[in-house]
Design brief:
By secondary structure, this protein is α+β, with helices and mostly antiparallel strands. Helices cover about 55% and strands about 15% of the residues. It has helices at about 1-5, 10-75, 75-80, 105-110, 160, 165-190, 195-210, 225-270, 280-310, 320-340, 360-375, 430-440, and strands at about 85, 95, 125-130, 135-145, 150-155, 320, 345, 355, 380-390, 390-400, 445-450, 455-465. Helix 11 runs antiparallel to helix 12 (about 430-440). It is rod-shaped. The two termini are about 60 Å apart.
Length: about 475
């Protein structure tokens, strides 16, 4: 349990978000602290600078007597609490007014102005001088008309003391917010990542039990996690369908290969027990060769389909007229058609040239014709036609057979698929799979649909050039 929590994505996300929150909060506090400290400092400086400017004008106009009269006549506490000193150009004290609560050491701790940045453009300069750990001096110096300087100062709390309640409040509020963010963030991250845990649990259950019917309960909504769960379920459904098709294919393949293998074995045993009858032995060997050729044909067809589907089928493209392939296929199967009483019709109005492998494409056309003749009843018709538009060539094979149900229009192109109507016919269900593989290796398409007058219609569309 502890190991699972340690590896939990929800907890890692919660701690990551908490770290980001703490960092942002600390930066925000630092900015606010700096702004507040500067605001307090600016207010303190403005107070001493304004008083220094006013008292400086009074001294310039009336001298020390007027300055003392102004200080004595003003009974406001904020004025009485100021230290006021007038210095001669030689830094000798000309006038001094000390707040009642000050002691001598406080007076001596305030240095003379010296070079504090007073210039022709800035006649008043204020500074903060540390008094002790808790108190500071806020002192402003103003240049007087006769060359001396006037100092105004006040003892005030240090910025650290003034801002201490702010720091303490932030510490408590920040700690509470941090703990709350950890709790809420963990809860929200745990709920948000629940679909991922469901996907992981479902995948583990499938691996442990092999139950391909397991599905993930999808969360509501259309966000990324809901989309992920939906795609994962779709993937499971497709995999289950592929597994079912594979099992069906293996069943069909084992059933269809067992018959020729059994026949091959029986024929070989018969040849072994026929003694000195050489004719019977030769006939048995000939049957073995026939069955072996049939098995090799099945294996070669499966290899060709796999190569074509994997893009590894070698094509020798040349410029060919599709009519030549249709005519060759018609000549090849004309005798079979006549034996079954089926009429082969050709509809080839104009030449249709394309870049293709004539041998491979001829295999596809032959398989389509063979398939049409197989399911067309006596007295029916099989029509081969070729057409072209601006970019594609179209080859159609139409028959008068039972047709292809709409539900099987795609399934019939799968390997070893045998529809209900084809169970009575001999074959392994590889012909149409090979057709589809060859056509798609030429960047074309093949589809099965119902013919206008009944029966099935297979349409092959190919680009007119290899670069299309």
């Amino acid at each position: 349990m502890f190991e699972r929590l340690r590896r939990s994505l929800a907890l890692r996300l919660a701690w990551l978000y908490t770290a980001v929150f703490a960092t942002v909060a600390a930066l925000l506090f630092a900015v606010l602290y700096w702004v507040l400290a500067n605001a307090l400092e600016a207010r303190e400086q403005a107070a001493v600078e304004q008083l220094a400017a006013r008292l400086g004008r009074i001294f310039d106009e009336g001298g020390a007597l007027a300055l003392r009269a102004e200080i004595n006549s003003n009974t406001a506490p904020e004025v009485r609490s100021f230290f006021v000193r007038v210095l001669a150009p030689s830094n000798d004290t000309v006038f001094l007014s000390v707040p009642p609560d000050w002691i001598q050491t406080q007076v001596t701790n305030i240095p003379v102005p010296g070079d504090w940045g007073i210039s022709e453009t800035r006649q008043i300069r204020s500074v903060r001088i540390p008094q002790n750990a808790l108190r500071d001096y806020a002192v402003a110096s103003a240049r007087l008309a006769y060359g001396g300087a006037l100092q105004v100062g006040r003892s005030t709390d240090s910025l650290a003391v003034l801002l201490r309640p702010f720091r303490r409040a932030f510490a408590w509020v920040g700690a509470a917010a941090l703990l709350l963010s950890i709790a809420v963030g963990t809860l929200l991250a745990w709920r948000a990542t629940r679909p991922l845990r469901l996907v992981s649990d479902t995948a583990r259950r499938i691996l442990e039990t092999g139950d391909m019917s397991a599905r993930v309960a999808g969360p509501p909504g259309s966000d990324e996690l809901a989309l992920l769960v939906g795609q994962f379920n779709t993937l499971l459904e497709r995999n289950a369908a592929h597994v079912q098709v594979l099992r069906s294919t293996l069943d069909s393949l084992s059933h269809d290969l067992r018959t020729p293998l059994t026949r091959l074995r029986g024929t070989a045993e018969l040849a072994l027990h026929d003694g000195q009858d050489h004719e019977e032995a030769r006939s048995a060997l000939a049957s073995c060769i026939d069955e072996t050729d049939r098995l090799l044909h099945v294996v070669d067809t499966l290899l060709d389909i796999s190569a074509a589907e994997g893009g590894a089928l070698s094509l020798n493209r040349t410029r060919i007229d599709l009519r030549s392939l249709v005519v060759r296929a018609a000549d090849l199967y004309r005798e079979v058609a006549e034996e079954k009483g089926i009429e082969l019709r050709l509809d080839l109005p104009v030449p249709v040239e394309t870049d293709a492998d004539g041998v491979r494409l001829g295999q596809a056309v032959n398989n389509l014709v063979d398939n049409a003749l197989k399911y067309t009843p006596a007295g029916g018709h099989v029509t081969l036609s070729v057409r072209a538009d601006s970019s594609h060539a179209e080859l159609c094979v139409t028959d008068d057979g039972p047709g292809v149900p709409a539900s099987e229009s795609e399934a019939i192109f799968r390997r070893l698929y045998r529809g209900d109507a084809s169970r009575s016919q001999r074959g392994l269900g590889l012909g149409l799979s090979l057709v589809k593989a060859i056509v798609e290796s030429h960047n074309g398409t093949v589809l099965a649909c119902a013919a206008p007058g009944g029966g099935a219609r297979f349409v092959v569309r190919l680009p007119l050039s290899a670069t299309a």
